[in-house]
Amino acid sequence: MVSELDRLVRAVDDPELPHVTIGDLGMVRSVEVDGNAAHVRLTPTYTGCPATEQIRSDVESAVLAAGYEPSVEFVMSPPWSTDDITDQGRAKLTAAGIAPPGAAADGPVALDLPVACPHCNSRRTRLTSAFGATACKALHMCEACRQPFESFKAI
Ligand SMILES: [Zn+2]
What we know:
single chain; alpha/beta; 4-stranded mixed beta sheet; 3-stranded mixed beta sheet; elongated; binds zinc ion
């Protein structure tokens, strides 16, 4: 059963991805309430993602606002993988113009296959930079619709 506090924690936005929550990204491992204290376990996404500390502080604020004393712990095992992103999260990423990793609908995808363009779904895309706006995303250019886009790196 998902508690109200659990729901609030999962609704915290990822600071780098507007409208995409940490619940959508599959980062929330557990939310345990013990009396007045709430213990939240999160798994960070990409190592070195500068958003990690921002997420900790946003989760603490959400827990405090719900009337609990927060303790936020980052757990590295099992490691987060792009497979943890929910279907809703993938849909939101696509809607935001960011190609979600390894489009599940396509079945198994070879690692060297170009990322599908989130604007027109063409695979005639090329990587323009391994580092996008942040260390967590890559920049691509679509040859079909001539639009640049970002992708989540699959890990
Ligand atoms: Zn395109």
